Amino acid sequence: MRLALREVKKRKFYGTNEMERYELQSPRQRRFEQFRKWVTIVSSLIAAFLFWGLLAAGLVRYFFKVSEEGALLYVGLPIGLVVVIFLCAKLPELTRALGFDDHLR
Asked: Which residues, 6 or more positions from 41, have their beta carbon under 8 angstroms from its beta carbon?
């Protein structure tokens, strides 16, 4: 029983930090992880831009009877850009929330 527990502990990288795991990767795997990270972040930013921009434009159009083009252009676009700028300022927290390590730059 003890022997089996020792083997499990060895396989689960007890006593090592996350950086040591990534040092063992090949450069190709590292590039793939970086590419996956940035595709996920950019798609999340695009989704946030669209969601908050369209939500704000829809509310303005509903309450103030503005045309569709005017609501999207003058309300949705600025609100979406503000949200993206805010999220870019919080990028380290966003990467941790998405499950990426900080050392993947």
From this structure: 91, 94, 95, 98
